[in-house]
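call fold(seq) -> tokens
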Amino acid sequence: MAGTRMGLRDIYFAKLIKDDAAGATYDKPVKIGKAIEASISPNTNSETLSADDGPSEIETAFGGVEVEIGVDQLSHDIQALLLGHMVNADGVLEKKDTDLAPYGALLFKSQVSGGGDKLYALYKGKFQLQEEEFATKTDSPEFQTDSISGTFMRREFDGVWGRSVYTKGEGVNQAVINEWFTKVYEPSASTGGGTPPSGE
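ret:
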């Protein structure tokens, strides 16, 4: 059984190359900054059928996941990756009104009490232009960090929108843990969708 979440680190983004009925493929994950905070908010839409003077049935549909992450800084290369901008030959970040943010997977880690970590993957989403705030220096140093928000959804390939695993869970494949941030996790043919490991 996994403990209580205690931290956040290792936030990565992997650009989605293809997502269709035949499968989904990604570029290699890239670390987007030193993690400060993250907010993951799934949206659901519910309808209630009333019959015999009371609720009879409830249907719920998945409406996507709103994500906001905070990091120490978003470099020009990372802004280009997440938002579709370009770094030109002079090393200058160019932002155009025609830039399109790519779809991709978001990966991150949270340490839990009692030892171990929980690893998370959101499989298909894109980020939007972020707000930037500036303030003059004063006698007391004040850090000005970056944040960015996005929306994630289910994949066309298999309907999956997220997966997570507890590193100390019973029966967890150690290779999955070792490779979580080197490639976007996909179940092996022998496991398929499967049952979540213990601790989920």
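The radius of gyration is 20 Å.
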